[in-house]
Design a protein that fits this description.
By secondary structure, the protein is α/β, with parallel strands linked by helices. It has a single domain, classed as Purple Acid Phosphatase, chain A, domain 2, CATH 3.60.21. About 20% of the residues lie in helices and about 20% in strands. The protein contains seven helices and 13 strands. The strands form two sheets. Strands 1, 2, 3, 4, 5, 12 and 13 form a seven-stranded mixed sheet that branches. The two termini are about 25 Å apart.
Amino acid sequence: MKMQQRRELLRLLGVSGVTFASGLWGCATGSAAATAGHTATATATPTPNEPLPRDFFFLQLSDTHWGYQGAANPEADRTLRETIATINSVAIKPEFVIFTGDLTQTTDDPAQRRARMKEFKSIASELAVKEVRFIPGEHDASLDGGEAYREFFGETHYAFEHHGVYFLALDNVSQPGATLGEAQLAWLERELAKIPKASALAVFAHRPLFDLYPDWEWSTKDGARAIELLAGRPNVNVFYGHIHQQHEQRTGAIVHRAARSLVFPLPAPGSVPKKAPLAWDPQSPDHGLGYREVDREREALRVQERPFKTS
């Protein structure tokens, strides 16, 4: 991406509060967090005789909870639409946008669940990008095993490749007990067997695959088995949601990166006796909300956190 284009992208998306993180796909294994407003570049080493990949970037949006009504976000009917308007206002478009779960707010009413999904899908279709992808969260899929989700968004787990980067989208919410399940783990093993071992690999999930804070259901009961399958690969990043805040942790060489929510933030793991949304601050410039850009510029790959910004 040309420097002039990058400056325009930063200006329109709101450079204040942006965090640049290193450690993506082949970077040295130092501290991955960089000071806000400063760049830490990750350099990936291409396979000998392999052409350099084409530049591209994608956006991760998470935990929109469409249909939520409450004091934690009195503007919940606006934040998603305003984020989409901001993304659409930028001349440089992402190759794709992925929503990593909890697209809608949970409801016991199957008809209302489908109505929320239909409305959310319609709003998401306003994104002026080539492709929009989804995975479910527990609010979307846990009550009916993903039945309504599949009606609107298709399979709950899948794989694809984009300009030399391989992507695996996992479902750790629709099976009972916050698990991936034997069938999906077998599928994951088969998919990994098709991918060259040194290739850049990005995994999408809703819940963390590791035990971040099980008492708050911030874990996947059989996630350790998925991590074991991924562990033999040198260039793996897991992008997830669920915890409504930016967080980064390593399991061996794998980097796990949680994204902010677009409805309300949650407290740091174990920092309070009971998990609950943080209070809405009308004076806050971004209300603790945001989304993520991941971009690849030849050998360099970056994660950039984008604060929520009204259009």
